[in-house]
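Appendix B. Worked example

We walk through a single record from start to finish. Start with the input: the chain for Probable nicotinate-nucleotide adenylyltransferase, Ancylobacter tetraedralis, length 249.
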Amino acid sequence: MRRPPLMPDDGAERPAPDEGPGRRAAGEPLAGAGSGMAAWTAARDVRIPPLAPGMRIGLYGGSFNPPHAAHRAVSLLALKRLRLDKVWWLVTPGNPLKDNGRLPPLGVRLAQARAIANHPALVPTGLEAGLGTRYSFDTVAALVARFPQVHFVWLMGADNLASFHRWQRWRDIAARVPICVVDRQGCTFPAMAAPAALALAPWRREEHEAARLAGMKPPAWLFLHGLKSPLSSTQLRAKRDNSAALSPS
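Next comes the structure step. The output line below is what the pipeline stores for this chain.
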């Protein structure tokens, strides 16, 4: 079927969703990154993870505040169904549209993410702080340009697809890498009726093509079923804050 060309974004800035990594601040120092072992840890955390030509790597972005079991489940599902070699968790340094005063330092969230990931193919990284990228599009563009022989796939939950049209240059993300959307409980219908899903409908692939998605020429995307976790970082933060408020001083 002949598909129409994907129209580029108009470049206008739009607010990013709460958990979506559409806009992110660069250059946040890691906690304790001063000298000695702390400085070495900071350098390691913002370095691009090892990779090689021909690898198939999922890019899963977010604040990971906090990281939780659903992040791991999404990653393992994508790892298996898309036949990926690695899934990089792009832990954002910060978001200028949020109160970053309440956002734990990047180093803290990376340590938490590694404890949750607990798998050799799941790689939490602060590479965006190292690249100095501000938006998800900038990160994608930088990685694709630097590693043209690596097959990157953007991973997101269905809740993020519902607000994807508010991300900075979202069409350009879709034009540079294939996208895998993983279903989430209660998000299926809002996601599929969202402006981005409707705009990208001509390039949607069937779920049985998942194993070939990483090698497809973008734009190409699919909706992956099989995970119905209700967990979200927003809910976990609210629960944590409520518990702290109820605790005696």
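Two observations about the output. The chain has one domain: 54-243. Residues 11-21, 23-41, 236-247 have pLDDT under 50 and may be disordered.
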